[in-house]
Write a structure and sequence with these properties.
Blueprint: H1 2-18, E1 32-34, E2 43-45, H2 47-55, H3 59-68, E3 76-82, E4 86-91, H4 93-106, E5 120-124, H5 136-154, E6 158-165, H6 170-186, H7 201-214, H8 222-226, H9 238-279, E7 286-289, H10 290-295, H11 298-308, E8 312-315, E9 318-321, E10 332-335, H12 343-356, E11 361-367, H13 374-383, E12 391-396, E13 399-403, E14 406-407, H14 420-427, H15 429-436, E15 445-448, H16 449-453, H17 460-480, H18 487-492, H19 500-510, H20 512-522, H21 526-545, H22 553-576
Parallel strand pairs: 5-6, 5-11, 6-7, 11-12, 13-15
Antiparallel strand pairs: 1-2, 2-4, 3-4, 8-9, 9-10, 13-14
Helix pairs in contact: 1-3, 2-3, 4-19, 4-22, 5-15, 5-20, 6-7, 6-9, 7-9, 11-12, 14-15, 17-21, 17-22, 19-21, 19-22, 20-21, 21-22
């Protein structure tokens, strides 16, 4: 309807140009908005205000001219000029009711558009280090990334969902050392577990599986393992101590057996992460291994490309990327003086790889603590000749979980944290997914467990799902009374839907495609969540004000058409957010 009104206004302006009222080269940018107060119409346009300077007329006079030259339309009952020159449009009841037929005809396709057609987008999200189970802090990024991917697909984009597996680097070596030390304890070797090792019970579980697989073959004596190490905290340096243990593990085990221990930890945790995400309704098209970058020499190739473009220099035996030339606050090391490449170098190679795979846009969903990393990554892309605007970074604040008034601490290293699986088992996938996307991703969020579990209108996901279930119950009630829903009759009698609550519900349904388009454009799934709450509120108000299962077949079927349209939109919207639409509650 907004596009229809905009077309009418453009036609009026063209007529005014022909009549000589406006210059022929005048360009009008027409924007149609919903009115806040329906007493002032359904839609409003400020084009008269924006044209005032170019047309050299008062906005009110321009608005009057446009209204006088609008083409006749059965869908517009009247227009009014408000304030300094706003044009308000009152939409006919027939136009409002027409949305019901559209929804019932298009079904799950209602709300889709083609704005992203032909555009390939990669959304990389979660990408938590495979050093422990996913905790509730990771859940928000998972829910946001999955919902955003669904939104973009609804807008016609070709979307690839990717998880970047950080399976290289020091943290993974610490995990491997932790697994091996727990294995040694199971094998009867007395070793003191390092304060900086991974403490969780899951490490014990992995070690037990490793012991069952390898027996005592990987066992070494206490002296061989613990001799001549830097002292651990609190008396010593915990970082040097754990690094010594990593070196010792590699030395005693040899390359093949160290890889066996390393892979035991990696594979177990990665499989656990996949299982948790699948239960959370999140699947990925690609699990990209960081180690593959080094194995395929992509890191050195990326550094070489930067060198060839003159953006790398040597200092102190290390190679530095001139990131300050591209807006960074300091230059960054890409290869240390010992010949090892840095994590940043891996990230440069990874992003180069993404764009070489043909992505038009890459969206990274990162934790808010990665804010300072954006500039250097974009600098590297620009240095490589890739437009940095093609990389979009969405920062997600970690959700803070509360049990009553007590905040739950989360630390993967200490093993004291609430896992995503535990959250899902306690409050359910649906409540978790909805609560995570109910606020802007960059806003702080406290996760209220008690509210998420409550069955009341204060719990938004319950309130929305209950609206869907109520409509499904209506279908069963009709069947109990031998009254089948006749959609054809209902669509022919939509003029009977003239009550205020009916009109409000139809107008709310009509907003859905616009909400989807804006949410996809702005990368904001929370807009869908807020819309669904409003839609559910309108439906419950309608349901509580009017009977649906009545003897009047024409009115009954018309009302059922409206209810079924509402049900379809709720189903579509919840599906985008990864939330089920139950038929009974």
């Amino acid at each position: 309807m907004k596009q229809y009104i905009a077309d009418l206004i453009h036609q009026a302006i063209d007529a005014l140009k022909t009549a000589g009222e406006f210059d022929s080269d005048l360009v009008a940018h027409v924007q149609i908005d919903n009115t806040r107060d329906k007493q002032h119409g359904d839609l409003a346009c400020n084009v008269a205000l924006t044209l005032a300077k170019m047309a050299r007329r008062k906005p009110h006079d321009i608005a009057l001219l446009i209204c006088q030259h609008l083409p006749q339309s059965d869908l517009v009952t009247k227009t009014e000029i408000a304030g300094p020159g706003f044009i308000n449009f009152f939409i006919s009841q027939d136009a409002t009711q027409a949305v019901i037929g559209r929804v019932l005809s298009e079904a799950e396709k209602f709300g889709r558009n083609h704005s992203g057609a032909g555009h390939k987008v990669q959304v990389e999200f979660v990408s938590a280090n495979p050093t422990g189970p996913l905790h509730v802090g990771h859940g928000r990024g998972a829910a946001y990334g999955a919902s955003l991917s669904n939104l973009l697909e609804t807008a016609g984009f070709q979307v690839e969902r990717e998880y970047y597996v950080n399976d290289a680097g020091r943290q993974m070596d610490i995990l491997a050392a932790s697994v091996w030390l727990r294995y040694l304890q199971l094998a009867g070797t007395e070793v003191v577990f390092p304060s900086n090792g991974y403490q969780g019970d899951y490490v014990n579980d992995i070690a037990q599986q490793l012991h069952q697989q390898a027996g005592d073959r990987l066992k070494h004596s206490t002296t061989a393992v613990m001799a001549d190490l830097h002292a651990d905290a609190p008396a010593g340096d915990k970082e040097k101590h754990v690094d010594d243990l990593i070196v010792r593990a590699k030395s005693l085990l040899g390359e093949a057996d160290y890889d066996l221990v390393f892979d035991a930890g990696l594979n177990s945790i990665r499989d656990d992460i996949k299982h948790d995400l699948r239960g959370f309704g999140v699947d990925f098209d690609q699990w990209f291994s960081e180690r593959s970058l080094d194995q395929n020499d992509q890191i050195n190739r990326a550094i070489t490309k930067l060198q060839e473009k003159g953006h790398v220099y040597e200092d102190g035996g290390a190679l530095w990327f001139r990131s300050t030339e591209f807006g960074d606050d300091k230059d960054r090391v890409v290869k240390r003086d010992n010949g090892q490449t840095t994590y940043f170098a891996s990230d440069i190679a990874y992003h180069l790889n993404k764009f070489e795979r043909g992505m038009d846009t890459v969206i990274n969903v990162w934790g808010a603590d990665h804010h300072g990393y954006i500039t250097r990554v974009k600098a590297a892309l620009q240095a490589l000749g890739i437009n940095p605007t093609r990389l979009v970074v969405k920062l997600v604040q970690f959700a803070i979980l509360y049990r009553g008034q007590e905040r739950v601490q989360m630390s993967t290293r200490s093993g004291s944290f609430v896992t995503l699986r535990e959250l899902r088992e306690e409050v359910g996938k649906d409540a978790s997914r909805f609560f995570y996307v109910n606020r802007k991703a960059e806003q702080h969020m406290d996760f209220d467990l008690e509210l998420a579990k409550s069955e009341s209108k204060d719990n938004p996901v319950y309130y929305i799902q209950y609206a869907h279930a109520r409509i499904c119950t209506l279908i069963r009630k009709l069947a109990d009374k031998d009254m089948a829903w006749d959609s054809i009759m209902g669509l022919e009698q939509l003029e009977l839907l003239s009550e205020a609550t009916e009109i409000a519900l139809m107008q709310q349904i009509e907003l859905y495609p616009e909400v989807i388009a804006q949410a996809a454009k702005n990368h904001e799934p929370h807009q869908v969540a807020h819309y669904l709450k409003d839609l559910a509120s309108n439906f419950h108000s309608y349901y509580n004000a009017h009977r649906m299962v009545i003897d009047d077949a024409q009115l009954r079927n018309a009302r059922m058409c409206l209810c079924m349209a509402a049900r379809q939109v709720i189903d579509n919207g919840l599906g985008l957010l990864g939330v089920d639409a139950p038929e009974q509650m």
